Amino acid sequence: MPRRKEVPALGGLCLQSLAQHMQSIWVKDYSENYLDKYQFRFVMGPFNDLAGSLVQDLIRLLGESRRLTRAALHLLLLPHLRELSLRPCPGLVSNAIGQLVALRCKNLSSLDLHGCSRLSADVLVDLAEGLPRLSRLGLAETQANVQVLSAVGSCCRHLQELDVSHCKKVSPRALRHLAYDPLARSLCCPVLRVLLARGLEPAGDGSMAAALAFLLLALPRLEFLAHGAVPDALRLLHGQQLDSTRDAEGFPSLEELARWRGAAPGGSRLTLPLRRVEEVEEPDLAIVHAACPQAEEASVWLGDGPGPAGGWELLGWGRLARLTLGCTGWQGRVLAEVLPLARSLGTRLQTLALHGFCCQDELSLATLLASCPGLRAFSAELHAPPDTDPDRETPAEPPRWDTDLLPHGFPQLQSFSLALASTTGIFPAQYGLALRATLASLLCRAPRLQTLCLLSIPFPLDSVFETVLAAPGPPLLELQELSLAESRVSSRTAWLLLASEGRLRRLDLSHCRDIHRRDYDGFLQAVRKQRLDLDIAWE
């Protein structure tokens, strides 16, 4: 059965007690006697003896429970902090708080200011200049602008990860300042690996693609650049039609940057160290593959074009381990088209996500899974073909499903999600038989599975879980989260799960038409009576 509620750890209890009593003791005294009367560079108190990680946990706990105040923040901004996230309390982070961070927390290596829009650009500049040890900096949804990114580029020489997503004032020009200092005539951010720049204001004149191309050339260790125009930038670099003139602000041309990276005019094309590419459309796939041969993760959007999905002549993308494929066309693509790629990647493929494919062959899902024994996470949103013979007699369901349909196990699989959709509302009966046999075989052969989502499955699943939970082992011992929302499952399966061994902590039965209020009340009563650490959702 799911585990009984455990006794909370002593450290967690102490932290919760501290959070509960801060307001009535230390925060009250500081608010009444010091907060608006003095400007302390440092505050000596009981929190100085807490480890930096515990101080961050305390800030998070207070923020999530909405008990964090300006006075509490004053007390918790301590010199020995190594990591600080103010994401739980963006409304409290004023310019004064920002100045305190820059003044007191000189040893920070990680600072997350996501959503702290009250901080002015001048204070963000002070933070960048005053915290040179930063390796991670989150500025998403802030007032970051060209001055801020210029300061980050010039001062944060150890920065490895930066997030400027949804910053309305970050322009193509500002991004160039992040990578190059025109006054010093030197490159910046030499070890930056990850730059998240999603949701920036579109330039509309192609300057964003040129700016991203500039970043790709000027940041030699960049492994992931998150922006929708990255494929346009790669197309620009691949065509080798690079501007050869410096601009008025003193930035080097793309041609000059390419020479610095070892590319000769008319010679072999430059390759980039990007490990992750996203939002790649099918026509650009060959260019992205040529420019980023070391990519380990890719998300690709496929159209309705004829032939194998994505042009699988690119099976030589040797390091690819995490792949997302989505269909954007009206007709969609057939799941069988992915099989050559799956067979080529084989055991290398660790994560596979599929969206909008049609499963015309009822065994194509089983064949696909059998080709990827090294999967750690799998998710698919599939469309089944309409039933061309709805009056055909439904095949009899076996008393127990054969768990040997898949030829091997999935020793690394930790997350599996399958959602079905149908435009007609009717699925072929033989499809249901093959699908349930596939699920029974998979669940019996995935000993490390922790998260399982079977959404909108229109075929009865009770017999699948009966087969799996009765198998030797038993399976699903590591399962922690199970969602069966909108699927055909009855209270019998829920009672089997409650009686089984395992670590199940969350069970989602939302919109399961065969489960009723009296069933749900019975589940809750059993959970309370046995003191199980299990959350059950139903509506």
Described by its quaternary structure, the protein is single chain
Please tally the helical runs, counting DSSP H or I stretches of 4 or more residues.
17
Taken from the alpha-carbon principal axes, the silhouette is flat
Major β-sheet, in short? 11 strands, parallel
- Which class do the helix and strand fractions yield? alpha/beta
Count of distinct strands: 19
Helix content: 25-40%
Radius of gyration based on Cα positions: 28 Å
What is the average per-residue confidence, as pLDDT, rounded to a whole number?
Answer: 86
Instruction: Quote the distance from N terminus to C terminus.
Output: 23 Å
User: How big a fraction of the residues is strand?
Assistant: 5-15%
Poorly predicted residue ranges: none
Q: What does this molecule look like?
A:
- This protein has 539 residues and is an alpha/beta fold.
- Helix content is 33%, strand content 14%.
- The chain contains 17 helices and 19 strands.
- The strands form three sheets. Strands 9, 10, 11, 12, 13, 14, 15, 16, 17, 18 and 19 form an eleven-stranded parallel beta sheet that branches. Strands 1-2-3-4-7-8 form a six-stranded parallel beta sheet.
- The longest helix is centred in the N-terminal third of the chain and has 24 residues.
- The two termini are 23 Å apart.
- The relative contact order is 0.06.
- The model has no long low-confidence stretch (mean pLDDT 86).
Question: Concise description?
Answer:
Helix content is 33%, strand content 14%. The chain has helices at 10-33, 52-64, 70-76, 95-104, 121-130, 146-155, 172-179, 207-218, 230-238, 254-260, 285-291, 339-345, 364-370, 429-444, 462-470, 491-499, 517-530; strands at 83-85, 110-112, 136-138, 161-163, 180-181, 186-187, 194-196, 224-226, 276-281, 297-302, 322-327, 333-334, 351-358, 377-383, 415-421, 451-455, 481-483, 506-508, 535-537.
